[in-house]
Amino acid sequence: MMESNQPEINVDELMQKIREDVIKRQNQTYQTEVTNSNIDTPKINWSLNLIEGLLKNAESRAIVRTKWPDNLNRFPFNLSRGLQKLLLKILNLIFKDQREVNFNVINALKESVALNRVLIAQVETLRSQLDEYRSVAETQMQKLNEHLNITDTQLQRLYERLSNLDEYKSAIDRRVEELHERFGLVNNNIQEVEAKFNNIAAETNNSIVTVKESVNAIANQTRKLDERALKEDSYLKNDLIQQKRLISLFLEQVQQRLPESFNQQQLQTFVQEEQHSLDALYAAFEEEFRGSRELILNRLKVYLPLIAQAKIGTSDTPILDVGCGRGEWLELLREFGYTARGIDINRVMLEQCRIKGLEVIEADAITYLQSLPDVSLGGVTGFHIIEHLPFEALIKLLVETARAIKPGGLVIFETPNPENIIVGSCNFYSDPTHRNPLFPPTVKFLMEEHGFVNVEIWRLREFRIEDNLKFLEADHLLAPTLNPILEIIKSSFFAAPDFAVIGYKA
Questions:
Q1: Domain that holds residue 137
Q2: What are the helix (H) ranges across 258-327?
Q3: How many H-runs (helices) and E-runs (strands) does the chain carry?
Q4: pLDDT (tens digit, 9 = 90+) per residue, 14-44?
């Protein structure tokens, strides 16, 4: 049931209070007028002028006497001038204190008169302001009386309307009771619907999660199949190109020799072409096991400061990348404005480089270096190439590199690190074309023996054993026992998977 929160309004009492307040304000205004009318400004000014005249007269009589009065120059007071001056000094001395008092009183009165004049001026200003305020107040009182007359009528009407509200209130209370009953029924129905909806939502969410998992699994499988299909498509296209080239070459030679048989030189041509029969396969192998181009580009950025420090990579000090492969290093050098070219024997990879606008040559590394003039290169680099060479070929590569680069030139060779047991015993042999792992100090020794100085070994991408073996360090009781074991594991299983040998020509 609704209850009224508004108290009843007594219209008669309210109107009586308003009238009393108006009468009170009128009386205050009248008193102010009476008070202001008692101030007679001209009379006060006349009195002040009179006081000022008296003060001037008193001031003239209070000054020090320097002349004997004329009325005392007659008999029997006519005295000699010396005696007159003596008497004047005695009188001035006797009345000195009185004279100071008189002057002080006169000055005080002057200040009082000036202050009174200021106060009179301020009173006149206040009086004019009060007149303005009184005029405004009278106008407002008239308006207020008019509003009160209007308000009296409105309040009377309001009183009549309030008397009718009681009837409306009882009707509204009955309606509210009915609404409360119906609201209770609706609320119960809503709770039942919410319970059913929650059950359906939970079941739907479970179904959606299951569907999402299935979709993600299918998407992953589809992505893997797409990647696989792209790799196989690339391999098949490259292999088909090589096969077409061999068939075309064979047909050309057959047409030239028919009806005679092939000579030794023509047979040698076929033998040389046969070594490219696996180019497409090895290119697909690199895509599968080497890593993405973006990954290799980011890894190779570590060598860029060495290029800048050595001040090579200009037209006078070009960089030669042996075994350039897919050309990631060449692409990175070109991005930073260095002059470089690459050599490789894999025609599929060379074609990939040419598509990217890189300068590459199909040639054997040692044969190409032998064809170059002395001190014609600024640097020689080779990433994962020297592990493919027999020992004799590796020595020839170092000899020709030392001959071809200029003094101060830079040499970088990167290769898998057999110090890592997993790499040396397993991962190294994932590439069937690898010959044998190379021990880092051995490669450093060979570089130094062939005239390179300031040779360094960089162990790349070392693992942090602390990040991978935290579970072993959690038990503090076993820590002293495990320390030697951790060192062995760190040096053997967590060594850098790759290393680079960096040297400079003296």
A1: 11-178
A2: 264-274, 279-289, 293-300, 304-310
A3: 17, 7
A4: 566 666 765 665 555 545 444 444 556 677 7
Tens digit of pLDDT for each residue in 416-475?
999 998 898 898 998 888 999 999 999 999 999 999 999 999 998 755 544 445 444 444
**261 in a structural domain:** no
For residue range 480-491, what is the model confidence (pLDDT) as tens digits? 555 666 666 666
Check residue 76 and give its pLDDT.
59
* Residue the block writes with tokens 């020839």: 396
Three-point CA angle 337, 342, 348, nearest 5°: 120
Q: How far is CA 367 from CA 110, 188, 396, 401, 406, in A?
A: 125, 93, 10, 11, 19
- 285: tokens are 């192998």
Half-sphere exposure in the Cβ direction for 47 (13 Å, CA)? 11
Structural domain count of the chain: 2
> String of b and e for 7-39 (b: at least 16 CB within 10 Å)?
eeeeeeeeeeeeeeeeeeeeeebeeeeeeeeee
* Residue 470 within any structural domain of the chain: yes
Q: What is the 3-state secondary structure (H, E, C) of 122-140?
A: HHHHHHHHHHHHHHHHHHH
Residues in CB range of 454: below 8 A, 6 or more apart: 503, 504
CB atoms < 10 A from the CB of 176, how many? 13
8 A C-beta contact, residue 69 and residue 88: no
In a domain, 100, yes or no: yes
**Strands 405-416 and 498-505, bridge-based pairing:** antiparallel
Answer yes or no: is 298 within a domain: yes
Prediction pTM value? 0.49
Among 178, 207, 242, the domain-final residue is 178
